[in-house]
Amino acid sequence: MDIKSNSLYSQMQNMSLQAMGNKPPVIDADVINGIASNSVGKVNQSTSNFGDMLTSALKGVNDLQTESGEKKRAFEMGDSNVTLAEVMIASSKSGVALDATVQIRNKFVEAYKEIMSMPV
C-alpha cells in the first residue's frame, strides 16, 4: 500500500483535531467586514483526548471478548437461557472488534514507521 507522506500527515492532523474535539478557528463575521473584534475563535474545552478515546475503545473490545466467553461457557454448561444463536452472534461481534483493533494497530505502526523515516 502506497501512502503519500503529505496525505498521511494531513490525515493525522485531522484525526488529532477530531480526537481533541478542536475545530479550525472560525473567522468572525465582524473581522471579515473590517470591524475589529476580540474573539479569535472558540476552542472546545473538552477534557477527552486521544489516549482516553483509545483506552475506552480497547475496554469495549475487551468487554465484547468477555461477554462472548461467558456466553460460550454458559452454553457449554447447558444453560437454557443462552441459545446457540446468541453465542454465535457474540462470538462474531468480538471477532470483528478484535480484527478491527488489530488493523488499527497495524495502521498506527505503519504511520509511525513512515513518520520516523521522513527526513527532518
From TrEMBL:
The record's Gene Ontology cellular component field reads: bacterial-type flagellum basal body
GO BP field: bacterial-type flagellum-dependent cell motility
What residue intervals traverse the membrane?
none
This protein's superkingdom? Answer: Bacteria
Presence of keyword DNA-binding: no
Q: Which UniProt keywords apply?
A: Bacterial flagellum, Cell projection, Cilium, Flagellum
Instruction: Cite the GO molecular-function annotations of the record.
Output: cytoskeletal motor activity; structural molecule activity
- NCBIfam families from the entry? fliE
Name the protein family.
Belongs to the FliE family.
Q: What is this protein called?
A: Flagellar hook-basal body complex protein FliE
Q: Which organism is it from?
A: Colwellia psychrerythraea
Show the taxonomic lineage. Answer: Bacteria, Pseudomonadati, Pseudomonadota, Gammaproteobacteria, Alteromonadales
